From TrEMBL:
SMART domains: HTH_XRE (SM00530)
GO MF term list: DNA binding
PROSITE patterns (alphabetical): HTH_CROC1
Domain HTH cro/C1-type: 21-70
Pfam family, one: HTH_3
The protein, known as: Helix-turn-helix protein
Gene3D superfamilies in the record: lambda repressor-like DNA-binding domains
Protein source organism: Arcticibacter pallidicorallinus
Length: 177
């Protein structure tokens, strides 16, 4: 059975979510800057709302991109540094505190970023990936934390989980996209 096509609302929500995640900004800060309610922003990211053109423009202005770039569902997302700089400028233009206090990057974001930046690898156990990530990113994550994140990434299809004969120690691999 062919996979159902995603609705435009779902595609836009995914795209907005990628910008939010890359910028490392909270939904509350997006709401504050755009004057769009927290619930509406959340529902939009979850693909449950049909945003108006005015909302699309508000989100685009916040992230410092054009509305057409925000609507380019298969386009790349600007770097975290560029997005955060654009958000600071936007806050300053609005007369708000130009340091909106971006969220601290958590292990899920750091490990996912490490996986995305890595060459294809595998199969490697979670402990091996943890060691590589800690070395590359200067972190000190525990194997349990990294293993949980890797399981989530495997469920999303970003990496592949393979059995090693020990149910408690699966291996993960990243292949060419």
């Amino acid at each position: 059975m062919p996979e159902a096509k995603k609705s435009i609302n779902a595609l836009f929500g995914e795209r907005l979510g990628k910008f939010k995640k890359k910028a490392n900004i909270s939904i509350a800060k997006i709401s504050y800057a755009t004057s769009i309610s927290v619930n509406y922003v959340t529902d939009t990211i979850n693909g449950k709302r049909n945003p108006t053109l005015l909302h699309v423009e508000s989100y685009a202005n916040l992230f410092g991109v054009s509305a057409s770039e925000l609507l380019r569902f298969d386009g790349s997302v600007p770097s975290r540094e560029d997005l955060q700089q654009n958000i600071r400028k936007y806050f300053k233009v609005l007369g708000y505190n130009p340091t909106p206090g971006f969220k601290k990057l958590g292990p899920a974001y750091i490990v996912e970023e490490f996986i995305a930046e890595s060459e294809p690898f595998g199969p490697l156990e979670a402990a091996e990936i943890k060691n590589l990530c800690n070395q590359a990113k200067g972190t000190s994550y525990k194997t349990n934390d990294v293993s949980r994140i890797l399981n989530n990434l495997a469920e999303e299809g970003i990496i592949y989980k393979t059995q090693t004969g020990n149910a408690k120690k699966p291996a993960y691999k990243k292949v060419e996209e």
